[in-house]
Amino acid sequence: MNYEDLEIWKIANKLVLQIHQLTINDIPKFEMYETGNQIRRSIKSVKANIVEGFGRRQYKLEFIRFLVIAMASNDETIDHLKTLYLTKSLTDKEKYEQYLRRLDELGRKINRFISAVKREHRC
Fold this sequence. Notes:
The chain is mostly helical and about 120 residues long.
């Protein structure tokens, strides 16, 4: 098993690609270098911290620490998405709500994964 087998990594990876496209195609160009840059960095951080945590999985507390950081980066991504929508840089309500749902789902799955690691980790 490797990190690419984790459902949370698969969801995060898909969101990295989708949010990257969102910031290129659906927001004003000036936002590409402001909030667009921040949201790209925060969603990439979710995925990267899942990977780094998995790489340290033989150490339960390290694994959990990186998953908690991934959770925090997911929350940051949600906040950036809300900022884009509230400032009217992202005007497509359907896309906004769709990404909000996906990020919320990812956060819940990361949280459940953290609980499972706490409960079942044996290394």
